[in-house]
Amino acid sequence: MDAPLPLLPDDVEPTRATLHAYLRAVAAVPRAHGIVHPRWWHIACLLRPDGLTTAPVPLPDGRSLSIRVDPRAGRIVIEASDAPGPVLSMTEGLTASELGDRIIDAAAAYGLEGPYDRASFADDGGGEYDPGHAAALFAAFTAADQLFTAHRAQLRGEVGPIQVWPHGFDIAFEWFGTRTVEHIAGGETAVSQAQLNLGFYPSGRPYFYSSPWPFEADVLLPIELPHGASWHTDGWLGSVLYYDEVAGVPDGRERVLAYARAVFAAAAPTLTA
User: Fold this and answer.
1) Within-domain flag for 2
2) Residue 108 resides in a domain
3) In this structure, are residues 90 and 18 in contact, taking their beta carbons and an 8 Å threshold?
4) pLDDT of 207-252, one tens digit each?
């Protein structure tokens, strides 16, 4: 992990937006047919050397189905557990709705029928796809995954998997504290574990983030974070370290790890019973 973090092109946003829209279309299948996880892990993708892969979706005949988004090859591969399946192109200029229809048709050939949450990808985003920019994004995600794996290995307690989330097109994992918090969810009172995530968000000015929940502002805001990182309170509560502050420099990876360690050291005591 000595190589500098890869740089992102200045004009990467159109391709990022297309990948984001397409990933939401892909997630419609595990959302409808996957084995439901209470933390919604069943709709997220895992990052692999050959792309972003959904969790296995059970098929009526006892096999399982997975969908793999390969940014470098510009394709989406749909395959059962015992055989390859359809390959869909991401370079044809399709909207997310058009691609989503093709994915749903492919799933139907395996015996999977709706209902599908088409509203999650029906904004007709997508279309512009630069293979070089897609490869750059995948390289940044891969580097983030490596850093998160290194940091995650040092944590004690309950940690979740490193996942790419379709709703935000970010890669992140969660550490769960021992404190429980009563809150309102769906109009009803619920009790959940306190948690702290570490993630990478590539839209706009890309950044690493870490968001303690609940956010104890009186404790956290006076604490200074390293390497240009700062607390974030506008719209959401947490902290950010902008990617352009650490990409392409020799010690960029260590800066990210130092940031992750600092936020954890600051927040973990507030999330522990």
Assistant:
1) no
2) yes
3) yes
4) 999 999 999 999 999 999 999 999 999 999 999 999 999 999 999 9
The pTM is what? 0.95
Environment class of 12 (CB within 10 Å of its CB; exposed 0-12, middle 13-18, buried 19+): buried
Domain stops at, among 77, 100, 120: 120
Nearby residues of 112 by Cβ (< 8 Å), 6 or more positions away: 29, 32, 33, 57, 59, 60, 65
- Kindly state the tokens that stand for 96: 């997310």
Q: Is residue 143 part of a domain?
A: yes
CA–CA dist 168, 45 (Å, integer): 12
Distance CA 168, CA 30 (A): 16
- Asked whether residue 80 is domain-assigned, the answer is yes
pLDDT in tens, 17-49: 999 999 999 999 999 999 999 999 999 999 999
Residue 77, both tokens: 């591969």
- Range(s) of the domain holding residue 178: 131-271
Q: Please tell me whether residues 164 and 245 are part of one structural domain.
A: yes
Q: What is the pLDDT of residues 140-199, one digit of tens each?
A: 999 999 999 999 999 999 999 999 999 999 999 999 999 999 988 778 888 999 999 999
Listed residues 74, 95, 120: the one ending a domain? 120
Do residues 157 and 234 both lie within one domain?
yes
List the one residue out of 212, 191, 189 whose CA is nearest residue 262.
Answer: 212
